[in-house]
């Protein structure tokens, strides 16, 4: 799952810093960096953002004023050097309020919060055709010339074996083999609930109970976390870790 985000700040250095932060987070896609709300308006109409990092004190149109005209589903994070605007920020239902200078750790924590809320939001129909809703907690896969229903809540992890995938369950069912491409399956499964941890493994993250030296432990099975996927996996763990 990707979150489209935008950064709006009349201080170029501050805008560039937040953009660099966003580019380090795998589930964020920066649709634009703007130095005024006025210049942001046209592009954001054409390509809406799920998440906007918005400075408050700006010429022509303040961040508070701009937030009031944004779609209700857009998550707003106010960024400012002045804490006296916090109450105004929460009046427009801001997701968070970050005081400058903003650290990467605080930025990442806020993004993780936005991702959790976005993942939990009910999916809405698009263009009158509708899309797969959250109530559909199952998929069908081909196995031995049959279509077999897979309940996502019962999946523990998926292993890629050349042209096949092997799906493992937590309800005592035998693993199921299906002729399928891992990438295609990864794109279909909801993220970050299901994450690729290795070229040969997709893990149902809520099933994870133990992580040992960058390996996910399911009983006597150790699922590796490779360098290619460790940033996204670590972000998931960070968003659910209390220190």
Q: What keyword list fits this structure?
A:
243 residues, elongated, 7 helices, single chain
Mind sketching the topology for me?
Elements: E1 3-8, H1 12-23, E2 28-34, H2 37-46, E3 51-55, H3 63-67, E4 75-80, H4 86-91, E5 96-99, H5 104-120, E6 138-143, E7 146-151, E8 155-161, E9 164-169, E10 176-179, H6 182-188, E11 194-198, E12 201-204, E13 210-211, E14 215-218, E15 221-224, H7 230-239
Parallel strand pairs: 1-2, 1-3, 3-4, 4-5
Antiparallel strand pairs: 6-7, 8-9, 8-12, 9-10, 11-12, 13-14, 14-15
Helix pairs in contact: 5-7
Q: Could you explain how this protein is built, in words?
A:
By secondary structure, the protein is an alpha/beta fold. Helices cover 28% and strands 31% of the residues. It is built from 7 helices and 15 strands. The strands form 4 sheets. Strands 2-1-3-4-5 form a 5-stranded parallel sheet, sandwiched between helices. Strands 10-9-8-12-11 form a 5-stranded antiparallel sheet. Helix 4 (86-91) links the parallel strand 4 and strand 5 (96-99). The relative contact order is 0.10. Mean pLDDT is 85; it is low at 122-135.
